[in-house]
Amino acid sequence: MAVLVTGAAGFIGAATSRALLERGDEVVGVDNLNDYYCPSLKQARLNNLQRQFGNRFRFERLDFADAAALKVFADSVQFDCIVHLGAQAGVRYSLDHPEAYVRSNLVGHCNMLELARHRRVRHMVYASSSSVYGGNKSLPFRVEDRVDHPLSLYAATKKADELMSESYANLYRVPLTGLRFFTVYGPWGRPDMAMWIFTRAIYAGEPIPLFNGGEMRRDFTYIDDVVRGLVSCLDSAPIDDGEVKAGGSTGPHALYNIGNSRSEDLMRVVELLEQETGKKALLDPQPMQIGDVPETFADISAIEHDHGFRPATSIDEGVPRFVKWYREYHAL
Fold this sequence. Notes:
It is a single chain. By secondary structure, this protein is α/β, with parallel strands linked by helices. The chain contains ten helices and 13 strands. It has helices at residues 11-22, 39-53, 67-74, 98-119, 153-172, 194-204, 223-234, 266-277, 301-307, 315-329; strands at residues 2-6, 26-31, 57-61, 81-84, 123-129, 176-181, 184-185, 207-211, 217-218, 221-222, 253-258, 264-265, 282-286. Strands 3-2-1-4-5-6-11 form a seven-stranded parallel sheet, with helices on both faces. It has a two-stranded parallel sheet with strand order 7-10. It has a two-stranded parallel sheet with strand order 8-13. Helix 6 crosses helix 8 (266-277). It is globular, with a radius of gyration of 19 Å.
């Protein structure tokens, strides 16, 4: 099978590409390699894939929000399915750069839906986010919950992606699956995420910013678990049978949470990082960041029922793996 992966230089995109290549698929990866975070990290992920898999991994630097450029490129390649992970990520960045989210997450997502429609792909799996739950007070978050009150523009764009996808599934019967990711971490992770920020600060002897005074809980989900769930979903497109799917659609469109299904105290993560680095963390309590939420917690019963997904990695295992990789990557 040949798979088009957008955001292939990103954290989840590169890990997903690797998993697909390791099982024998061919991957066509695209990414615009923007400077939201250090492009050298993105290039390093790509270099690893190209070294190990050679011509079975084809990469093109491309902005999928450019419809004309996307069409020209897509006309030159063959693919059966799409894994659409490319997006402008980050809650806090959306406060100052709303235009980046409109272009990538709205225009870009619509372009990918059009591509899936006209190429009649077997299935398109796309990235949503736990951020769509906004200020939801009911825990754990369920895919059946109303998500009409986003707390950030980033969350609003991800909800809009789900709505656009629902319309394409109903209008054109395009098989689609949206995945609401919960705080993904692990080796090759993103520098704008807490695990990296905290680890860097500890090694540098700098204070760790703790929003809401550290009174935060997150459903930390290890990258290998996320990829396993994503690939399982990719292999089983929603059936166009008129039955209600996870998330409520009667079209060929399903929505799932991918999380560890455990809400962990942020200070427990700090403790694990202190143990692995052998250094004491300096703490900088700060007010709650606008657009953020104090707790996330995934109900994964839908994806467990439909795809047999069960996370296997606790933070007690995952945090040490990340720190080990971080030391190797930075030659510490």
